[in-house]
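Box S2. Input/output pair 1.
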Amino acid sequence: MNNTGDLELRAVAQISLTTHITPRIRSISLDINRDRKEILFRAYTDGQLPESAHEALMCALTEISAAYPAEWKLQEEIIALPEPGQMDYLRLVVYVRCEDDWVDRSI
């Protein structure tokens, strides 16, 4: 894959996700297939997302999609997998929540 395209997608995704990450989001990863004009998006969540958190994630997806020409497709996967379930990332990891045992996330 084109390293410049990877860096561009990573930057677009991370900017789009700013202010759209909610507490139940465990990770977000992406991949890009330039030949098929397709972006793959995978998010793991700690159980079902509340409607407002799902809407926030959809806003980020819209922003990612808007950065590419209209003929590009964005395939999304939102997988509910409670912690400590093992996540299977796509090639470009753009967000992973800290799930270390010593970190108190109950607040």
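Box S3. Input/output pair 2.
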Amino acid sequence: MQEIQFLFEDPNEQIKAKLIIEPLAPVSIVSTMPGSYYKSQTSPTKHNLCGILENILGWHFSLADRRKILKKILQIHKKKYRVKSLNRENSAVGYMPLIYHLFEIQPPYYKPAISCQYNDLWKQCLKADDKRHLGGTPNIDYSLIKEKVQLPKGENGKVTDQTLNEFFKKNQSKFPQYYTSPTLREFIVVEGFFRYCLMVNAHLFDALKRALAESNSAYLGTNEGWVDIKLEKL
């Protein structure tokens, strides 16, 4: 994992670079949480690029840690570099990138052709605090099986929602943190590569080049959407 120290260095040192993303498998680029059907975009957004590049850097921080880091970045930039604010925004799904303010996308931009589009079932990870979680997960702690079978039933011969909710809340630590729900998702097959022209912070560029020297593979959209990354100075 690349250290985050460069985030606190001069944000005004910039260079022009070319970013090339070559999909190695079908990708599904979704930037919102639409519900029952996840339609793919035809190209990555800036938030998608942030996700790819932070994945290359090996960063997997919690939302709470990201808030702390961004607060510290702004404090140092205000004091040391006279920066009034960070040019940043969260994605529609709450992703809070740490490098959003460190690069800008400029023309020219190359978008490849899409040779195929198809729908596939995708396991969506969800979390609930009631019987939905209990009914959605296929696994529970073995010690609960006998107790679950012996839950009292109502007049219709079924366990009531209230009883199921109480059972789940009492034993929440013995269930998986997430349950899965089959969801229809669109995937696209790309012929070629995405190419971006960037004005990028020099310290971020150097950190990415060090990381790419070790591995230039990442994923786009889902953990099945493997891509090859190249980053070069212009």
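Caption for Box S3: The chain has a mean pLDDT of 92. The beta strands are 14-23, 37-38, 103-110, 113-126, 179-191, 194-201, 217-219, 226-233.
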